[in-house]
Amino acid sequence: MRLSFVLNGEPVSIQVQPNTRLIEVLRKDFALTGARPGCLYGTCGFCSILLNGELALSCMIPVFRVHNCEVTTIEGFMETREFRDIEIGFLRAGTVPCAFCASAKVLTTHWAITSHPTPSPADLKRAVAAVQCRCTSYGRYANAIRYSAEVRRKRLHGRGR
Ligand code: FES
Ligand code: FES
């Protein structure tokens, strides 16, 4: 099956078995390795990407579903101004994600603060739970999301609080 979609802002077209997992296509056909294969059954969150701007698990998406859609991986997201908000937020919280979870945490944070610009404790809990990292404290990761939201609000509206 030939599929066309927008990948990190560029139109792409590929001949592929329609049920191939999106994560495999990203990693093997496009050499985009930021989305990590963890559990491969929709639990760990390490394979997160943005699909039409929404957080999505690329291990659970058969590639035919992205036909005519917009896919953003961490490689594309890092080129955006939005990425910088999150970079600053994480630095301010004093937490540096490891190479395995960084892409998922950054994209999850972006999704969380885009859908909830002033995240409530429940929003933070939901966002932290989306990536199964056992080596960073809940408080640090939640602070990183909160600070990222402040940076984003300040950039967009001139006030962080
Ligand atoms: S690899 Fe674990 S949710 Fe996709
Ligand atoms: S899995 Fe990366 S910091 Fe915990």
Structure description:
With 161 residues, the protein is of the alpha+beta class. It contains 6 helices and 5 strands; from the N terminus they run ββαβββααααα. It folds into 2 domains: 2-77, Beta-grasp domain (Ubiquitin-like (UB roll), Roll); 81-157, DNA polymerase, domain 1, CATH 1.10.150.120. It has helices spanning 22-29, 74-77, 81-93, 102-115, 121-129, 138-157, and strands at 2-7, 10-15, 48-51, 54-57, 70-72. It has a 5-stranded mixed β-sheet. The longest helix has 20 residues, at 138-157. The protein is globular and about 50 Å long. Residues 97-98, 100-101, 133, 135-136 line the site of one FE2/S2 (inorganic) cluster (FES). One FE2/S2 (inorganic) cluster (FES) binds next to loops.
